[in-house]
Amino acid sequence: MNVKLIIFFLILVIFVCLLINHAVSIIPQNQVGMVSTLGKFSKKIEPGFHLILPFITHVDRVDLAQVPLKLNEQSVISKDNAEVIISLSLNYHVTDPYKFTFENADSVQSMIQQSRAHLRGIIGTMDLNEVLNGTERINAALSKELGSITDSYGVNVDRINIDTIQPTPEIQESMNKQINATREREAAIAKAEGEARSIELTNKAKNDALIATAEANAQAARVAADAEAYRISQENEILCKTSKQYLAAQNIEAFAKLANSSANTVVIPTSVSDSLGQIMTFGELVKQKKED
Fold this sequence. Notes:
Elements: H1 3-23, E1 24-27, E2 31-37, E3 40-45, E4 48-51, E5 57-63, E6 67-70, E7 74-77, E8 83-94, H2 97-103, H3 107-123, H4 128-132, H5 135-147, E9 155-167, H6 169-241, H7 244-259, H8 270-276, H9 282-291
Antiparallel strand pairs: 1-4, 2-3, 2-5, 6-8, 7-8, 8-9
Helix pairs in contact: 3-5, 7-9
C-alpha cells in the first residue's frame, strides 16, 4: 500500500475523531451545558446526549449540585481591638448558570471575597466576648449579608458555619491572666463575706445570750417581787383581822418583861399610853398575867 495513502487515511481518521469529539456533547446528571457559538451564548442544554456544531461552538458544563467549600483561616479585629483567627466553611449551589458562567469571571472566588469582607465587618462591630460567644449570631448575619449579594454571581449560599474562633496567643495569655485575677478576686470576696457572716452570727449569739439572761433575771425579779407583795398582803390581811385587845396584850406582855427587869424607869410613848387607857389598868393586867 502506498505510504501516502496510509498517511491520508490516518489523517482522515484523526479528523473524524476530532469532528465527532467536537460535534457530540454528553451532559451528566445535575449539570447543564452553556453553549456558545463563535464566542456568544446561544442556548442551554439539559443532561443527556447532544449534537453541536463542531469547532465553532463551545460547551461550558455547570454543576448544579450543592458544593461544600472550606475557606482558609482569616485574621480579624474585634471592636475592642482584639485579634482573632476564624475558620469559615460554607455550602453553595448554582442558581443561575448564565450569571455564573458569563457575568463573572470567577463567581466562586467573588463569593469567597465577599464572605471574608462581610465577616470582617461583622466582627468589627462586636467585642471579643461577644465574638467568642456569638457563633450563631455571626452565622445568621453572614447568611443575611451574602444572600443579598451572591445572587448577582448566580449562586446561593445554603449554609455558612464558623468552624473555629481562636484568639491570638497574646490575646489568649491576656485572657488567662484576667480569668485568674477574676477568680482570685471572687475567692477573696467569698472569704471576706464568710468571715463577716461568721462575726455576725457570733455577735448575734452573744446578744441573744445577753437578752436571754436579762429576761431570765427580769422574770426572777418579777417572781420575787410578786412573792414579797403576796407576803405583805397576807400579813396586812392577818393584821386587819387581829383584835385591838390582842395587840394591847402583846404590848402589856412586853412592858411586863421590862418591869421585871433590872431597869428602874420605863418610858411609855404617848400613843401607847392612850391605847392602854381603853382597856384594864396596867397593874391589873400585869397581875392577871402573873396569875395566869
